[in-house]
Amino acid sequence: MSTRSVVVVFSVVVAILLAVIVFQSQMQKVQPPAQEQAGQTAMPPGGGMPPGGMPPAGAQVASPPAEASPGLEWKVPAGWKTLEARSMRLATYGIPAAAGDAEGAECAVFYFGPSQGGGVQENLDRWVAQFEHPTQPTRSQAEVAGFPVYRVMVKGDYLAPSGPMMQSTGSRKGYALHGAIVEGSAGRVFFKMTGPEKTVLAASRDFEDMLKTLRKP
Q1: Which stretches within 88-165 are classed as H helix?
Q2: Partner of 16 at 20 to 30 A CA spacing, among 27, 30, 56, 158?
Q3: From the CB of residue 165, how many other CB atoms can be counted at a distance below 10 Å?
């Protein structure tokens, strides 16, 4: 092979290698983030829960912006204490323990933004699924101030999911959940009360009275 032929072949090989390097570089630029490859979802701004409201397992949830508004107002029952602000929540209320219970209950309020947070039925089912050996859940539907309100009550051993991966923090025996999802004018608002069974049952009237005060701002 002549010297000129060797030079030509070498130039072709170099050109091919450069083309391969450029192609791989472009592929890396369009590669989706690792969390999307794993099937995880980044919730849009607007708050949670799973849910719990609640965000699905594996969801990466963004806290709602300060200006986010659910388009709803309600009155907090007397005796309930407004707790410190927490990520993904509009509000958290502490409920005093009933006689015989070692600890009180908690009512968390979530808002994820318009058309966000998942469907009503899937969230109600998710709340029930957070219990081991649950009783038959009680479900009901009503309307308050023109807003559809969907309720569920269930008792059993609560798995107490927490964190962005919604992992169980340990089984809480003898717990109950009284929850409601409100179809607000700016999106669904999730009210989730959980705690020892006696305390939740004792606070259920206050919970229902709070829902009756729902109104537009």
Answers
A1: 120-129
A2: 30
A3: 12
pTM assigned to the model = 0.68
d(CA 60, CA 164): 6
Type and span of the H or E element at 109: strand 105-111
Ramachandran sector of residue 94 (left: φ over 0; alpha: ψ -120 to 50; beta: rest): beta
CB 101 within 8 A of CB 196: yes
CB-based burial of residue 196 (10 Å sphere; 0-12 exposed, 13-18 middle, 19+ buried)?
Answer: buried
Q: How much is the pLDDT for 5?
A: 54
Query: Peptide bond preceding 52: is omega within 30 degrees of 0, i.e. cis?
Result: yes
> Looking at the domain covering 40-212, what would its CATH class be?
alpha beta
Other residues' Cβ atoms within 10 Å of the Cβ of residue 11: 10
pLDDT digits (tens, 9 = 90+) for 164-180: 545 566 778 999 999 99
Between CA 212 and CA 217, with CA 216 as vertex, the angle to 5 degrees is: 120
Domain boundaries of the chain, sorted by first residue:
3-31, 40-212
Contact 76, 17 (CB under 8 A): no
